[in-house]
Amino acid sequence: MHFKIADLRKQRSAAFDAFNLLAQKENLTEPELVDFTGKEATVRSLDDQITRAKAAQELAASTAQPVAGQPTVSASVEKDHYVREKSLVLGGVVKMLGAGGGSIYNARTAAHEAYGESHPVTRALAATTGTSGGFAVPEDYMAEIIPLLRAAAVVRSAGPRVIPMPRGTMRLPGQSSAASATYGSEIQKIPTSQQGFNQIVASYKKLTALVPVSNDMMRYADPAIDAFVRDDLVKIVALREDIAFLTGDGTQDTPKGFLGFANDYVRATAGTIGNWSTSGNSVYAVGGTFITSNMVYTLATVANELGGAINRLDVALVPDNRRVWFMHPRTFNYLNNVQNSLAIYVFRDELSRGTLLGYPFKKTAQLPINIYDSSSTNQDLSFVFLAEMTEAMVLDSMQLELAVSKEGTYIDGGGNTISVFQNDQTLIRAIAEHDFQLRHAAAVAVIQNVRWAPAIS
Question: For the structural domain made of 144-171+197-457, what CATH number should be given?
Fold first, then answer.
């Protein structure tokens, strides 16, 4: 039954993507309306099948009887924490893998003793596969990692299209130019024209994390400790992913982010490519969808630059379906507190409703505030992005793979070699594989040289 639900969810995800593609169109032809109705019915039918499968699974679990000698756990304990918040299972599973020394078999035994036979952590381990300490949470539980990443990572939470990429690479065809139409006389031959095509080639980039956890915490089967282990792991993975999706340049086996794609569009339109530095003179991008902020800023210059970013996307014919601002908290705090000559907060009312100039926004300290200007005079510059999220794609090749070890050493942030065994720790290694793409490089506008900050900071 577990595998049936997982398969249905995959089908539902694919069906919804097809339905959503039509739903985002402003106008539909008659055949498209018929297709839209059919796709909507397919999604609803799959939702009903998933609901029925879950109900059958729950009834089967409620009538199951443990064999003689198996420990049990009360339903009230499960409903109190792990069933209600299934993402806790991730932390519990990591802990049991540590207790089992990386062995799935030993981890199951440890889970039986710590949680009980019918506990979600034990059931998750019973359905896993692993070799040499490797581990993959089964899909019913694994799905929880994506909502957690969405909460921690602003780009995922802004709603890009998430596409499975099971083979690690994918070619996405696109249109580079349009055919043309012309007027002519009655006897004039109609000139021919054709569309131009290109393709996006996505390939997975490996994101890794190595997290040491105290064994004193790993020994206790408590929801608070499980949540700590889970959150620490997710935070590390999510934040590094976010940096790549925001400002990555696509070099050194990393994904290209919004800033890198904006630079690509400058290159394609024969502008000046930007090169921003945190240690010396920067080169400003000129052209494309870039706006250069006035470093001696006023309310008037800020308003013009925000409006200019919107205009950059409009002029580049970027769709206006789901645009989202991305900014540093310092930038937000300026906008939230700036007043006009009548002491009226200009943007505060709208910001309190979650939008800026009609578009939702995301705050993230992942955007830098230590970029140098072209002469290194000012060293506190930042960016503001306005991205069309229907153009953004996160291609997941492998969502998460975990491995644990109680031996060996690791290098800490200070460059010191730490013995895991001597310090009574467990090392957790996390690996995820994905790529980030924009269907069109023009789909993000960038305000560079942003110094906006509260008067008192």
Answer: 3.30.2400.10
